[in-house]
Amino acid sequence: MSYILAIDQGTTSTRAIVFDGALSVVSDAQEEFAQHFPQSGWVEHDPEDLWTTTLATCRGAIERAGINASQLAGIGITNQRETVIVWDRKTGDPIHNAIVWQDRRTAAMCSDLRAAGHEPMITERTGLLLDPYFSGTKLKWILDHVEGARARAARGELLFGTVDCFLIWRLTGGASHATDATNAARTMLYDIRKGRWSQTICDVFDIPMQMLPEVKDCAADFGMTEADLFGISIPIHGVAGDQQAATVGQACFEPGMLKSTYGTGCFALLNTGDTPVMSKNRLLTTIAYQLDGKPTYALEGSIFVAGAVVQWLRDGLQIISDATETQALAEQADPHQNVVLVPAFVGLGAPYWNPECRGAVFGLTRGSGPAEIAKAALESVGFQTRDLLEAMAADWQKDGVQPTLRVDGGMSASDWAMQFLSDIIAAPVDRPKIHETTALGVAWLAGMHAGVYPEQDEFAATWARETQFKPQMDDAQRNAKYAIWQKAVRATLSF
């Protein structure tokens, strides 16, 4: 029993990866699923798609590994965070589509709550800002808009969960209604200092607390899968939200260590140790991971659109047919043009937190074409990352942020994008040998709890760098380009 199965349930696809006893990838399986956009700014998933793709990819990865499910010592789950599902306690049937983290339908609700003076209390307890991004207002929306939902919730008939929680419930046949501290910390309902759900915030949102799951450590016993799913019951031993799992996978265990993940969005986390640091620059205070009942905190900057801007080039503008073409296009761009793309397709996240603004392109000329727009798209990710790092440096004065940024996620595979990132932040960028850091992190959590993998220090020592990108741009050019970006953001925010 030296294998671990990691489930990585993301925003656009579900993956399952089998790791061996040496934490090496043995096999994987991946399936995309449909995105639903009922109205402008609304984003939904069918919860059944999340479940069926999870089941199919798990079975596929086990089969491709050439192993029997009895050889699995445990399962780890990492997931898109903040996405909300509400389901019937008896039948397991969802009462509404999952409302995805990108969804902005509760912007007006957040404004009303802010006007009523609730944000300081919510921020103090949860470390989060009043924004549609988080789960709390999405859950309130479902209770307010699905007929009979609030009454059913009050009678204890409905359960709430983030995606990890829903999958645990389904995998265990309803025996376990649980989540971990990192996912709970993203709901805007969880007191990250006291380590419990906040009755006060639930009262403000009119959310019955019996809907909420039990909160556990990231490495814990989350229940046993039903035997008929994989031919044998398998323990679920590790859970972490995707960005926290990547932080673990990047071995950012020391205060001051920093990682940035480039998936659909971009999320930078800075380990701040055992003390929550409240941001003065509109960053989030959150839980990086929790082991043995002890939370380790982080400052987080969340960018809503990173890899999604490349998807837009492919699916929206149709100027590429595959994401890998973006780098070649960017290399062909006219270096004398200053085309800037602010990808505020669903508003801007940290440090601006404006859900109402929308994307814009500046600096177009008659000579601007697909190459210039592709270059601007890749550069937008570097610019947004610099926004986050400057805010973090201002907030974290204690020992300073370590200068090297560890990166992962699909977009980190682009040498061009990572070189520009290093140039614009004026710091080295380290890409690890194992690119699957999110799945690796949760696999380690599950395997460590199962006794298959080493403890924290020994695991950290196994982290290895594949490539380091070093700044090549001079200060004058770097600062001039960033000043143009800031001007474009100000114009976008004011439109």
What keyword list fits this structure?
globular, five-stranded mixed beta sheet, alpha/beta, seven-stranded mixed beta sheet, single chain, 17 helices, 36% helix, 495 residues, 22% strand
Write up what this structure looks like.
It is a single chain. The protein is of the alpha/beta class and 495 residues long. It is 36% helix and 22% strand. The chain is built from 17 helices and 22 strands. It has helices at 47-65, 107-115, 119-126, 135-145, 149-154, 163-171, 181-184, 199-205, 227-230, 242-249, 307-316, 325-332, 370-395, 415-425, 437-450, 456-460, 475-494, and strands spanning 3-9, 13-19, 25-32, 44-45, 72-79, 85-88, 98-99, 158-161, 178-180, 190-191, 196-197, 214-216, 236-241, 258-262, 266-273, 284-291, 294-303, 340-342, 360-362, 405-408, 429-432, 465-469. The protein has a seven-stranded mixed sheet with strand order 16-17-15-14-20-21-22. It is globular, with a radius of gyration of 22 Å. The chain starts with a strand and ends with a helix. The mean pLDDT is 92.
Averaged pLDDT: 92
Major sheet description = 7 strands, mixed
Strand tally? 22
N/C terminus separation: 58 Å
Shape: globular
Radius of gyration, rounded?
22 Å
Question: What helical percentage do the residues reach?
Answer: 25-40%
Model regions low in confidence, pLDDT < 50 over at least 5 residues: none
Structural class: alpha/beta
Strand order of the largest sheet: 16-17-15-14-20-21-22
Strand content: 15-25%
